[in-house]
Each structure stands twice: as structure tokens, then as C-alpha cells.
Amino acid sequence: MAGRSDAGSAIGDRIDAITAYFRSRPRLRTLVVAGPPYAVLVLFFAIPLLVMLVVSFQTSEIGGPWTLSNYTNFLTSETYLTVVWQTLVISLQVTAIIAVVGYALAYSIVRFSRRTTLLLLLVILPFWTSYIIRMYAWINILQSDGVLDSTLNLFGLPAVGLLYSQPAVLIGFTYVWLPLAILPFYASLTNLDPDLIEASKDLGAGPIRTFTSVTLPMTKNGVITGLILTFIPTFGSFITPRLLGGTNNIMIGMVIENQFKSAFNWPFGAAIGMVISVVVVALLILATRFGGGLFGQRSQGGAEA
Amino acid sequence: MRKFSLDSGVSRRRFLQGAAGTGLAATAGCLGGGGGGGDDRVPMDVTEWPPEDISSSLNMWNWYDDWAEWAIDAFGDEYDVEVSNSGFSSPDQWYSQLEAGNEDIDNIAATTNWVERSIENDFLHEIPVDVMPAWDNITDRIKEASSYRQDGSVYAVPEALVLYPLTYNDEYFDSAPDSWGVLWDDEHEGELCMWDNATVSCQIAALYTGQDPIQPDDFDEIEEVLIQQKPLLRTYWGDYQQGMSLFVNEDVVAGPLTMGRTYTARFSEGAPVHYTAPQEGAMYTSDLFVIPRGAPNPIASLQFTNWASQTENAAQLFETMGYQPAVDISDELSEEDAEFTNWPDDWNLVFSETLSDEVRSRYDEIWTAVQAA
Amino acid sequence: MSLLHVSGLTKEFGDLVAVDDVDFDVEDGEFVSILGPSGSGKSTVLRMVAGFEEPTAGTIALEGEEIVGKPPFERDVNMVFQDLALFPHLTVAENIGYGLKQQGVPKAERRERSERMLEMVRLEGYGDRTPAELSGGEQQRVALARALVNEPALVLFDEPLSSLDRKLRQHMQTELQRIQTETDTTFLYVTHDQEVALAVSDRLIVLNDGGTQQIGTVEDLYEDPASRFVADFIGDVNTVTGRVTDLDDDRALIDAGTGEIPVPRTAIAADVAAGDDVDVCVRPYQVSLRDAATTETDATDAFASTGTVLSRSYQGSDSLYDVDTDAWGTVSAEVREDAFRNGEDVTVTWAPEHVHVYRRDDEDRPDGGETEDRPDGGETEDE
Predict the structure, then answer these.
(1) Residue C377, Cα to own-chain centre: how many angstroms?
(2) What is the mean pLDDT of residues C142-148?
(3) How many inter-chain contacts (A to B, CB under 8 Å) are there?
(4) Inter-residue contact B197 to B214 (CB < 8 Å)
(5) Which stretches are tagged as biased composition: Basic and acidic residues (chain C) (predicted)?
(6) pTM score of the predicted model
(7) Is A294 within a domain?
(8) Same domain flag for A52 and A80
(9) Domain of residue A132, residue span
(10) Which residues from chain A sit within 8 angstroms of residue B235, using beta carbons?
């Protein structure tokens, strides 16, 4: 017993000594705490991005001579800009659908359900399944004579054969990114003081006015965060449009993928990637200026009562 | 462009096997330092067959998943070698390993143009095909078509012939369509598909317009006919499984599909499909076994290459996945399979030579423009 | 016709009866408080008047019109919430103008009325700030202004002062009264804090366990508590235990350990019977202290016991003594004299007509139990 407690106190002393060592060296302490995350960021984010930037200025092969042609080719090509425009349009459509569907879902979970944990779990559940498998599930549902059409037929309704069309792509995207958007929607809605809703109604505002002038403004940060989380991955997608889309659903992500996987033009792919990243970051900054809480700038927290 | 089968994807079990195999190989390497000295030899050191003292493990990268799974046991049992396989979906996965300095991979199933690249960069061991008994089994057709030589040396052994045929519904069509023009025939509007692959699609268009698919002279025409074709199509399929389902569900009646997928659709899914090479010609390429430099078990890899080219083992490539091995296997096949797989000699097959950078990037631009149109 | 008429109001949450058959009226211009401990159902009553809860049974009429079933935004009442519920994303002026905006009042008029209301609550020039920039007291004023600017028939308060410190709370109480007078509005104020309620209210409704204990003016409740609960809850009270040895229509004989004292029947709760154990309650200001040496205890017509002064504290013009009595333990006495010192022997007495006698419940503080079936007023003699 004595030995054990001695050993215990020895370890305790040692820990105290280490703590004291760091306490007396605040810079070292900062480095130890902040170092690893920064190292990870630099290693897995900054360096690859830098490599991509460098590659994007090279001709056709990595290590080749320097050139701006990858950028000029991309930015002067009507074809590629058309693809970017189509990508933007479909991304905005997806974002709009998710804003409405996701908000309605999050709102009903917060306001009308008791089993919120279960419901949230169900919302997140699809993340345990591979993205591609989920897309195949949708192929099964949407294809002609698939689950959707059979069900419609069962009720005497005509088949719709949605697969390989724009609606199919929208459905696939909505399904895939909805959970990402619902979580911030849900978080902002649970943080919303229900008294504010009552106060609004008490002051004569009906449900719709209350929603537009209290609920929505108060959850704006969560909404914008959720929409950013939807918009960005949609913009870069290539699997969903390839599997669910028809002949007119090309997106810029597919073009980039092709440069790397089949056209073997990595520098060009890198250049497109860089331009798209800049565009997306610009949109991101714009969105946060409208009050998105992505960077924790909650300009208006709840007033202390 | 992984050769998918129905249960495609690297299964977890196989991944673990691979990991365990690698571990074992490492252990064996440490323990058996001088034993047999197999690790220090290169394939060209083998002057008599069979090679002696092959090491007890082999790490291969073969994308014919189902065949590889069968081979792991069959070859492993016969030669008492612990075999592991890493499936892959894109050749750049193994190529980047060779670029980084290979230390693990003994044997790769590599597509022709990647073999060329690897030879140019001196990533491959020369192979003593003259001492390999099974070399004689490789058909002349594929020997002539594939690129595996440089300065008189041989660096690869053909494994499979990969045909890019026109697949069609043989109940819908009374006889095999004799022209790629079937994909531009508005009689079949909405029941046609193309492959979402710039090279494949542009080459089909090139063949259709009577151009050289390797070096066409009128790119605009290719783009034009592909745009013309769009309204007739159900979709561009982007994934082998998806492409096959289109035929199995009879959503489409004609379009490009791989031979293996056509085989699976016909014999596993019972779909009424067959394939043909239209009179304008059909592209084909080959996959070859290579032994990369830095391979820890080069002699076992050589033994494996010879074993895989033995007729009954090569036949398994067809039996398991429907691909045409580089070996003449007609004696091994059932009548039904033989009927399916034996191509008429008069088929006009065009070897899919590596495209020049210019053609490849034009094809890519065209394909993007077509989809965006 | 009363401004607000509540009748038979009942609210059940599952098995729990939160509000049980409550009746009361509020007259135009009155300041009425609903007072009760937490869980008494007072907030539920208020929320039913506001429209946030639907009653299980009963009616609520505002200005003669039944409002049960109407949504909150169609009721001519406005509420000051416990946590104030100011809109953090709006400025002070926008908060105050919120209700007017819903009524379609033009912007200029909204601005003008908001400013007038800010003057009323003495926050001139605060219109452009956000609620987060205000102190707790300032936020209270904004919340009040936001309710008052709509000129509702009735303003409801759900314990809005409970988060303030005592001094600020007392200040806000006087402000509330001033503003109520100036705006001539009717206030219905819910609180558990009897000090606030007594200070500001014209009338009080005491609730306990969902039921009405007593309704009356501050004096009614203080001088003539209808139940042991009210006696205890409103103001300070001394409680000694005793037993009813005899009871007739005029008087009861009560033995509280100092012999049988005759107590008028009117001071005794209706359900008390002969032989019952009872609580005898008396307000500290009804208790007298005398110098033990110079006073003779006459135990036959008054409650009296000798004791020792434990402590003394000044309460303005009075002094509050705690005396350790021989008969009843500690008794508080609020008296004019300040002649007694700690440790001094004294005689504690009070007259039988100043007591209230309730049947003793098993529990220490009888806040359980049924509402007593006794008509209000008249049981005890006034001073």
C-alpha cells in the first residue's frame, strides 16, 4: 500500500512539475496547444492547395514549363463557362430546395416532436452508408418501373420515369445534403427563445408575420451556415449528376474529375479547381457578410434578460 | 476504369487479406534474409524453367477482382505462396506508387498505354518470355497489337483483350446492328445510351463519321454528330454497374458497354443482350502483366505471370468475369460461352493506341462541349 | 361589467390540475396581482388570459367578450414576459414599434408613439440602441413600453421584476405604479414575491395548488387571512400550537400551553371542531412586550408567556424583537417601545381577538390541502 501511494504521489509530482514547466513558458504552451491543429491544417490543406496552385501554372505535364494558358483557356472558353453557369444554377436550385425542405423539417422537429434525438439520429443515419450506394438506391427508386413508378401505378397514377433527368439530380442532391443543412438549422432553432415567438404573437403578429420578422431573422446565422454547407459540396459534385443526370446535367466537378482521371491534364484540372475555389470562397465571404455564423461572428446573441 | 463485377469494390475482407499479406511478406523478408536469395534476383536471371526457390508471398494489383480472388487460392495452393491483391479503380493509383519508388507491388494488371508510360520511365523489369512456357499460349493477334517491347526487350505479358463493342438487345434487333449509325437512328429515340467517357464516345463518333479514331482530321464533325445525337439518348452512363443496369432493365436497346459487363448482363442477369463490332470498326486494347522495379518478390511474380497465362487459368478470366484473356481458350469453353466469345475473324478491330496529348485534350473539350450544349 | 371576468377557469396537463376552478374579476384601471408560490398555477392563469394556453374548462371575458379560443394576436392584451423577450435583432424603437407595425400604423406615427413611450419610461434617446446594450432595469422599461404603446385593455406581467436586485426592484415598483396611473391602464401582475404584490396592488388574488385561497385588498388579506396559508404567505406571522378544549357559537376555549383562553368564534376557522389541534396565528405588530418584573401575567383572558429577548432590530419607527418564550419558543413582536435589551426578561402577550385559528394540518406549513369553504371577510374583528 505504502509503495503504491508513493508511486501515485510520484506520478502526481511529475505531472505537477510538467504543468509548472509549461505554466512558466506561455509561448511553449501556446505552441503545444495550437501547434497540432495548425500543423494538420498546413500539412493537409495549405500544402496540397499550394501544390495545386503551382501545378496549375504548368503546361500539360507536371514539371513542365510555366504558363498562364490553363487559366486563359478556361476563362475564355464559352464551353467551360457555360458548364460553370449550369453548375451555379443547379447548385442554387438545390440550395433553395434544401432551405425550404430542411427548415420545415428542422422546425417541425424542434416545435412539434418529443423524440427529437431519435428524429435527428434518423436524419443523420444515411451518413453511415456510402454516398455511391445511396445514389444507387435512388437509381432503384427513380428508374422506370422502379420503386417510385410502381408505387404510383399502385395508386392508379401514371409513371414518371424521373431517372436521368434534372429533377432526379435535384432529388439526389437534396437527399444527400439535407442532413448537413438540418443540423445547423436545428441548432439555431433550438437556441431560439420560444418566448420571442410568444412575444411576437402577443404583440399582434400572426404566425406568418412572426415567422418572417422573428423566427427567420433570429435563425439567420444557422440558415446561412446550412446553406453554405449545401451549396459548396453541390458546386463541386460529380458523382450525383453522373449517376442520376441525363445528357444535359454536366457540372464543373465532372470536368475537373475528367482532367485528372481520363484526360490526364492535371494542370488544366488544377487551374479549373483554383478558379472554382476562388469563386466559392468569394461567395462564402459574401454570405458571411450577410450574417452567416460560420466564423462564429454571432453579431446578435440573445440579450441577457 | 476498374473492371467491375456485380459485387464490385474491394471488400473489407480482401483489404484485410491484403494488409495481412503485406505484413507477412515483410516478416518473411526479415526472417528469411539469405534463404534462397529469391529477393535479390531479377526476372532476367531466370534462364531455366521452372525458376527455383520462389519466395512465399506475392502482392499483386489486379483489377479483375473476381478472377484475382480465385487466383489467390488457386496459385497460392499450387505454389504455397501467400497471395494478396489490391483492387484499384484507376491506373494512376498504382502508377503514382511506381513514381514514388515501389517497394511493395510484385505484379500489376496494367493497361497498354500505362505500360508504355511505365516502360518509358524505366519502372518495369524486363521479362524473360523466351524461357516462359506459357508465352506460346498468347495469341498472335494480341501480341501484335499490344505495346510491351522496347529495343527488343519485353516488359509485359498480355493478360486480357479489352474490347469496346456495341452492345445491343438481341430481342429488339433481329440481327446485330452493322453500323454505329444505330446510335444516331431516331427510330430508337430514347432507347439509346452513350458512355460518359470522352475518349470512348469521341472515338465512336470518329468511327461513325469514317475518321481515324486515333488521329481524326475533323474534330468539328465529331462534336457536331455527338450534339446531334443527344436528343436520342436516354443518358450517358458514368459507371459500369449503371451502364449494365440500363441494358438489364431494358431502358436502352443499344450503346457502348464493356464485354465483361455484357457477359454478366447476359449470363448472370439473364438480359437479352449481345455485342458486336460494327463494320466501321470497334476499339480494343489490352491489359498486361508487368513486374515493377522494386518488387519484393520478382521471381514469384514471374512464376505467377506464367501460371496466369496457362490456358485453364486464363480461361477463368472469362468464366469469372466475361473478359477475353490473351490466351486462346476456345477449348476450355462450353458451347454457349464459346459462341458468345468467339469473334468472327472479319471483325474490324482498331487497336486503341495511346492518344497524343493534342487529340486527347481535343476529345475532352469536345465531350465537355457536347454535354454542356 | 368588469374589464376582465374569469370564471370556472381550469387547466389540466395530463393528470396534473394546474389551475382548478378559478374565478376572479379585474375592474377597469385596477392593479391586480396574482400571488402564489411557484407551482401554484398563477403563470398558467396569466398565459390563458394571454392566449398561450387553452383552458380545459371555464370562460375568460375581456370587456364583455369571450376570448377563449382566440389566438394571442387577436386579443387586446399585451404581456411583459418574465425574461422580457425583447427582440435582440431589433433596436429599442423597433421593439416598441413592433406591435404598432402589426396593426398597420404608419412608420412616422410609430416612430412618434415609440418616442413618446420612451419618454414615459424615461429612456429618451435610447431608440437606436439594441436591447443587449441596455442594463437590466432599462430592458424592463423597454419591455413595459413595448406592451403599453399598443394601448391594450389589459397589460399582463409575468414576474418581470424577479431578476432585478432588491433596490432596483423597489424602484421599478414605484415606476410601475406611476406609469399605471399616468397611462390609466389596467394591470394584471403575477408574482411569487409578496413584497412586490403588497406594494403595488389594489387587490390580490392568492393562489395555491391551482386553487384560489383568497381575493381581496392588501388590508383584507393581511388583517383577515382566510387560511393558514394566506396568513403565512402574506406578511410575517407568529404561529403557536394549541388545542380546542371547548367550542360554541360565540367562543372557543383554546389551550396553547398557558391555560384555556376564550377566543371569539369569528377568529376561528369554520372547519375547526372541539378537540382539534389548531394553529394560533398572530401578527407580530399585535404582540405586546412588557417588563416581566412589573407585569403580572393574567393567563385567563390573553395569551401570555414570559421569555427572554433574543434580538432586536429597528424597522423604521418600530422595533422588531425576537423573544424566546417559555411557552412557545421564539415569538416575534413589533412594538413601539425600544426599552428592551437583549437578554432581558419580558412578558409576551396578545389579545384573543387578534388571533386567527386554523385547524392544524400534519404538515408544518399547511400549503397543501383544499381551499377552505369559507366566505370572505367578517370572521375576525377589525382593530
Answers:
(1) 17
(2) 95
(3) 77
(4) no
(5) 357-377
(6) 0.76
(7) no
(8) no
(9) 70-289
(10) 163-164, 245-247
